[in-house]
């Protein structure tokens, strides 16, 4: 699906109307293609703290060129500021001193990262200063423009090396539609990140299980995980069997058709993954439905069905896989929440409850999992799919423009975020919920 408005504003008359009427003028976002370098340009590194000396080496390990000092006339594809050394409010001015001189030297679709210390792990003035970073980065994300993104990555002391996959994701076009987010690395005392020998295929030798994989976001998740080297086992309802098999055959994957709300579904899934694949490394709970109605017009069957598919089934399947030991050590459990679960949405009390429940699901398990297994979630905003194409024009346009990038995202944007979570080097990333919404103006 395409964004017709974005096509229109690139025409001569569209450009004229944008200029004279102040209409949104979304930048065409750069997205990653297999074989591309993670960053096509130079990343400027600044700040002082625990990661200051390590950052050039970490970036070099990812094949990313970096510089420590600004050169006159130089353009930068990314900025990384180590703010872990800020221990009092008066030191926050160092943010302005680093960023202001270089903001006009950023290329289109630039990436900005601020690295801090999790405020909950420090006290006093340092906690104040570190918490202030959230307001700074969220605001900068709304003013950077030209397809740029801004993130805050809190890295716990001792987990500096575990930030490698996160640096690679947020500095690359893989994070095209993710901005204004706060990510924590190492706050749940996870096992240190596994080494990745080939960053172009970090999931080589891994098995990934994806529900709702026959089309839309689920299909794209399957394709991206396959691109990264995984053997994908796709699941969908029997009615979608033809589409599911077509996708799985194209990526040399396996498939399973069943209703995830069936009483024996968790056991059947566990048996299939154990017997045919010897276990599973990545579990993506993507399958979901909406049955929208205002609560005054809702009935218990429809309300309950949404909860059953979107929330209860993932809980039961995960519990069964964990109980039987089907999820391999250093495995990944990934849920698909929604911006509706954070900000709410008109007529979506059941859907929003289920997606907020997914976030609760992440919170409930993050400290309970063993053997290096992690759990995280994505929360998509307006993603352009066949389903959103059926939304009334006016509603669709508002949904696509009400974010810092003035456009909707693509299924691949959700898939890339899930692939980052799935990376074996992301062991320090646990208990996070990252919005894939172009920094939507709703919610936190």
UniProtKB/TrEMBL annotation:
<feature type="domain" description="Ketoreductase">
    <location>
        <begin position="206"/>
        <end position="381"/>
    </location>
</feature>
<keyword id="KW-0560">Oxidoreductase</keyword>
<dbReference type="InterPro" id="IPR020904">
    <property type="entry name" value="Sc_DH/Rdtase_CS"/>
</dbReference>
<dbReference type="GO" id="GO:0004316">
    <property type="term" value="F:3-oxoacyl-[acyl-carrier-protein] reductase (NADPH) activity"/>
</dbReference>
<protein>
    <submittedName>
        <fullName>3-oxoacyl-[acyl-carrier protein] reductase</fullName>
        <ecNumber>1.1.1.100</ecNumber>
    </submittedName>
</protein>
<dbReference type="InterPro" id="IPR036291">
    <property type="entry name" value="NAD(P)-bd_dom_sf"/>
</dbReference>
<dbReference type="InterPro" id="IPR002347">
    <property type="entry name" value="SDR_fam"/>
</dbReference>
<dbReference type="Pfam" id="PF00106">
    <property type="entry name" value="adh_short"/>
</dbReference>
<dbReference type="InterPro" id="IPR057326">
    <property type="entry name" value="KR_dom"/>
</dbReference>
<comment type="similarity">
    <text>Belongs to the short-chain dehydrogenases/reductases (SDR) family.</text>
</comment>
